[in-house]
Amino acid sequence: MTAIDALSADIRYDGGAAAVLIADLGGAGAGDRLATALDALGGRLIARIDWHVPLDRSATPRIILVDTVGINAPLRAERMAQIVGWAADTDAALVVALRADQIDAVTALTLGGATSLLVDPGIGECVAAVAIAIERSRQPAGVFDVTRESDGARLERLSAEVGRIAEALARLTQADHDRPSDPPAIVGDRSVAYQAAPGATQHDATDIRRAIRARRLRDQFFGGTLFEDPGWDMLLDLYAADLERRRVSVSSLCIAAAVAPTTALRWIARMTDSGLFERQPDPHDRRRAYMALSPPARDAMRGYFGAVLRNELRIA
Fold it and tell me: What is the dihedral of CA 96, 100, 102, 107, to 10 degrees?
């Protein structure tokens, strides 16, 4: 049994989900990793499309596989916008393999939803992403839920924790202390959860950066994977940048997450979809986009750190 067979033995699909592959077909091995993953899972490749020819949108694939290797920036920007539109029109899952230096350009056009972004992926990552795309393609609209994955569960717990903290701060400002509180929910579900307590202890970006440095110092002694917490690391980085009035690119936020770029992009997409992050286009360059905290998430972070300092706790 080959390595590919071993990876896909338990998740092979019958019937063949219809997919198209877009790659530089003149390049050596271009798109092979995605095509191999699709074949290993029993998918059906109905067309191979070269980046350098006009995009033919006559097919109705359930999955669109894209490999950006070997494609120059102007062509990639032009075609990628068309590909994203095609995926939206056909409700197709989109899987994109890209290089690390292409993160900002590619995420300016697509991030979140039914898109999987893979940075310099190995075959295992391709198989996993294509398997999710096939599963999504076989479900009625709105049924497939990527939060069944462990990362999604961790994000939900993080959101719930921030929401509970902000909700507690809001309750402190209410005159009627006997009023029963609503049950906790994730940050995106709260409408009154972001009212910071009056007179909260002041803090600035220096405090947040100090906490980030302490987290990275911890990794030096215990290893870089033992305490992985990309959601919180990115919240800290965006909050510090907000206090500094500094913009953060997607690639910079991936570095702040302190995990592999593909994992970081998956978290950024989920936190954007959940309403914690916002994508802000660069007004001077449509090929770039920046990430920022949403207003509710910013208020929750402000309330949280004010409460931590007011109660003489350590920022972590």
Answer: 60
**Rounded to whole angstroms, how far apart are CA atoms 18 and 46?**
6
Residue 160 CB contacts under 8 Å (≥ 6 apart), including other chains: 184, 185, 186, 187
Determine the Cα–Cα distance for residues 302 and 195; give it in Å rounded to an integer.
Answer: 9
What span, in angstroms and rounded, lies between the C-alpha atoms of 122 and 109? 23
Give how far Cα 37 sits from Cα of 13, 91, 117, 180, Å.
Answer: 12, 21, 15, 53
The total number of residues shown for the chain amounts to 316
Rg of the chain on CA atoms, in Å = 22
Indicate the pTM of the whole model. 0.74
Q: Which residue's entry shows tokens 């593909």?
A: 262
- Between the alpha carbon of residue 193 and those of residues 102, 236, 271, 297, 304, the distances in Å are 37, 19, 17, 10, 11
pLDDT for 33-90, tens place per residue?
Answer: 999 999 998 889 999 999 999 998 888 899 999 999 889 999 999 999 999 999 999 9
Of 35, 18, 276, nearest in space to 159 by CA: 276
**Alpha-carbon dihedral angle through residues 3, 5, 11, 13, given to the nearest 10 degrees:** 140
